[in-house]
Amino acid sequence: MSESHKIGTVYLVGAGPGDVGLLTVRGLELLRKADVVVYDYLANPLLLQHCPQAQAIYVGKKAAAHSMSQDQINAILVEKGKAGKRVVRLKGGDPFVFGRGGEECEALAAAGVPFEVVPGITAAIAAPAYAGIPVTHRDFNSSFTFLTGHEKEEEYREDEAKAREPGAGSDVDWAAIAKLPCVAFYMGVKSLPRICGKLIEHGMPADTPAASIRWGTTPRQRTVVGTLADLPQKVAEAKLAPPAITIVGKVVSLRATMNWFESRPLFGQTIVVTRTRQQASDLSEHLAELGANVVEAPTIELAQPGEWSEVDEALEHIAEYDWVIFTSQNGVQFAKRRLLDRGSDARAFAGVRVAAIGEATAQAVRDELCLRVDLCPKEFVAEALADDFEKRGEIRGRRFLLLRADIARPLLRERLADGGAVEVRDVSIYETRPATSLPPTLLDALAAKEIDWITFTSSSTARNLAALLGPDYKAKLEGVKLASIGPITTRAIEELGLTPTVQATTYNVEGLVDAILKSGMPASA
Ligand code: SAH
User: Fold this and answer.
1) Cα 297 to ligand 1 centroid, rounded to whole Å
2) For the chain, which end, N or C, has fewer CB atoms within 10 Å of the first or last residue's CB respectively?
3) Cβ 92 under 6 angstroms from ligand 1
4) Are 181 and 227 contained in the same domain?
5) C-alpha closest to that of 101 among 23, 43, 51, 32
6) Which residues pair with 303 in a beta bridge?
7) Ligand 1 proximity of 149 Cβ (cutoff 6 Å)
8) What CATH number should be reported for the domain holding residue 455?
């Protein structure tokens, strides 16, 4: 934190067009160190995850009945700067492209508050890029122009908008604009008929390709393509609302071959990931890479055991076992942490063979413990591991240590004991608890019927989700497709009176994603 007697600095940071990956490295550094973040409607609120330490002040139009005036925003920046804070003024796209960043700098300069500017990727470049439209191309245009439709939208208020009606001010020279080979209009959705009409009237060919892109670079992106003559009607028919960029020029025709973003297989699908926060990322990233809009709603929380004595006892005597069995990445991680906390390390496993259920678990054993697994069954379930042990004649007379979750099924323990193992010690290396609540974003999206899929990666994710949704969970889940990672999870889903739409053939995250992909796209997106 800055000292209060010193004057702070205000950083005008371009948040980029929406995709959180399109923030600059400099912008990210500043967010991480910010005391205060002043952000608005177009800056993706997910960026605030980079600055949990900062006071976040929302000044966008949807905050309350009253949006903040530009003077009020300027006053906040000046006040926080004078109070010695590191202030990030996070603005959608680039701060100086129709973002009123210039006015904020003037106010700061007048008040003697130091400021810096971090440019951002502006919507007129990024949204077309994600719609498969390069804004310049050697065959079509050697210039590209940014214009504003000046309507009442995010950045301009009603009174100001009136004074800036397209064509009203001396700044709009339609004859000149109509000669340009490629133009992009910000804030031009409502005045689109007027803009297109003026361009045609001043000589731009009516068949010039044109496109409007709403919420570009985000999973909500929607693109309407047409010509100068018919785009306004198509946009109206599609009910395309702000914020959208409209680009007019021959380059729009290239979308036919370059539409990479919207053609990804899961684009337009909203998919819920219910596993623990610790485990969600690999599934979430997988789905997001395929274009899905991912909603993370952990239904399970992991915790260390309330009581360590049993675990410690087992860890101390690892060398006395023939086999140590891990059944999840979490088990590996908790074992590693406890070993290190106790002043021990991977040498505790010397001479012991290691088995793992699941590729990801085997990988964690390699990466986290620097051990190779001796056995990892082809099928990622406890039954398969027991079968493999049996086939190898590895049960009778052997000692087994199972380091698993407190809710692990008894099957493996029983199979080993029945098969003649001398000792089977089943230790809860971590505990699982149902999450206490679901994120409001999920509940809202379910109510609005915006969820396409829910993924279940274990029986407890299914049971916990139902419990968290309450007694009418079936009604809430109506129309939502359910994806199960394997037969055990499927059984749990069926016990809830629900039917999985798909079940993975390979019982892991890749298999789950594959099953969703193979089930084909729904008609609506
Ligand atoms: N400073 C911003 C622009 C602010 S003006 C920038 O550099 O991008 C607000 C207008 O920007 C919106 O009305 C819309 O026309 C455009 N805009 C911003 N983000 C957008 C997005 N993700 N997709 C489409 N248009 C967007």
Assistant:
1) 29
2) N
3) yes
4) yes
5) 43
6) 431
7) no
8) 3.40.50.10090
Co-location of 451 and 396 in the same domain: no
**Half-sphere exposure at residue 17, Cβ-oriented, CA atoms within 13 angstroms:** 24
Q: For residue 283, give the nearest of 454, 489, 505 by alpha carbon.
A: 454
Here the CATH number for the domain that contains residue 147 is 3.30.950.10
Q: What is the pLDDT along the chain (525 residues), one digit of tens a residue?
A: 444 468 999 999 999 999 999 999 999 999 999 999 999 889 998 899 899 999 999 988 654 455 688 999 999 999 999 999 999 999 999 999 998 999 999 999 999 999 999 999 999 999 999 999 999 999 999 999 999 987 544 444 444 444 445 544 446 799 999 999 999 999 989 999 999 999 999 999 999 999 999 999 999 999 999 999 999 999 999 999 999 999 999 999 999 999 999 999 999 999 999 998 877 888 999 999 999 999 999 999 999 999 999 999 999 999 999 999 999 999 999 999 999 999 999 999 999 999 999 999 999 999 999 999 999 999 888 899 999 999 999 999 999 999 999 888 899 999 999 999 999 999 999 998 999 999 998 999 999 999 999 999 999 999 999 999 999 999 999 999 999 999 999 999 999 999 999 999 999 999 999 999 999 755 444
Q: If you measure from the C-alpha of residue 152 to the centroid of ligand 1, how many angstroms do you get, rounded to a whole number?
A: 13
Residue 378: how many CA atoms within 13 Å on its side-chain side? 3
To the nearest 10 degrees (0 to 180), the angle between helices 70-82 and 101-111 is 40
Return all residues near 136 (Cβ < 8 A) that are at least 6 apart: 142, 143, 144, 182, 251
Does residue 150 sit within a domain? yes
Helix axes 309-316, 329-341, angle to 10 degrees: 80
- Are 252 and 287 found together in one domain? no
123 lines ligand 1 (CB under 6 A): yes
In angstroms, what is the span from residue 16 Cα to ligand 1's centroid? 9
Query: Torsions phi, psi of 93, nearest 5?
Result: 65, -125
Q: How many helices (H) and strands (E) does the chain have?
A: 20, 20
- The distance of Cα 141 from the centroid of its chain, to the nearest Å, equals 35
Same domain, 339 and 413: yes
Q: How many structural domains is the chain composed of?
A: 4
Domain hosting 494: range is 270-299+436-519
The gap from C-alpha 520 to its chain's centroid, in whole angstroms, comes to: 22
Give the residue numbers marked as catalytic. Answer: 40, 61
For residue 457, give both structure tokens. 């990666």
Q: Which atom of ligand 1 is nearest to the CA of 95?
A: 1
